[in-house]
Inner-membrane translocator (Acidovorax delafieldii 2AN), 299 residues
Amino acid sequence: MEIFGVSLPGLLSQLLLGLVNGSFYAILSLGLAVIFGLLNVINFAHGALFMMGAVITWMAMTYFGIGYWWMLVLAPLLVGAFGVVIERLLLRWIYKLDHLYGLLLTLGLTLLVEGVFRSIYGVSGLGYDTPELLEGATSLGFMILPNYRAWVVVASIAVCIGTWYVIEKTKLGAYLRAGTENPRLVEAFGVNVPLMITLTYAFGAALAAFAGVLAAPVYQVSPLMGQNLIIVVFAVVVIGGMGSIMGSILTGLGLGIVEGFTKVIYPEASSTVVFVIMVIVLLIRPAGLFGKENKGPRA
């Protein structure tokens, strides 16, 4: 059976590849949405944090023999700690300013971080082996499913849903949202709002690092690997709606599949289809598919 001149197994394989890419889009755009929605900062450094997660994972294996499973925990903790430093030393001074200041600050930070790693490792890709437990593939009858790619999809969706649940359905999430809109009122209830804001940015950075660990066996680890995703991820966030948690998750997964399908029917458009969709969505719904009207900087 053929669809658009492509065999069904070939089509499903391409859609699976799109779903894997969509999983990275979802988890990275989720981190961006958390930071923007709760801190009101456009975090252009997210791609660099993603790269740091992957490079630290490679360094841990190469220099210290620390395996993949440990790094799923350690890399987010290390990059999250770096996020604490960023928030405390840099971002805390610009919350009341225009979004442009946050964008320029995090862009400069991105160039600095990428430059440091590039000076050490260059721009050539560094290989990272698939963990032994996830090697090989599983036959589904109509296609062969690589085990690691299946793990990436499952792990990404689980983390995304868990994050959505915490922010939208728990008391902690309510404090976070309230602290963004009225920090003085929340402080009156004994909540340390500055610490909560710092930990929120650290969590967003940790999400990016977690995605970097997942990406290490899929993509070539490189100091520039964040540049290849961050522009698309920003488009995903805009389409889903700036600050929308569920919008980022659903849009990231959906656009990954659309991108994979486009590679089958019209490969030349696969690199631009996300941006075409972004233009169409903004013309119809400027706030994004799941977005709400922006309420301005945090007071």
Q: What stands out?
A: The CA atoms of residues 35 and 61 lie 30 Å apart.
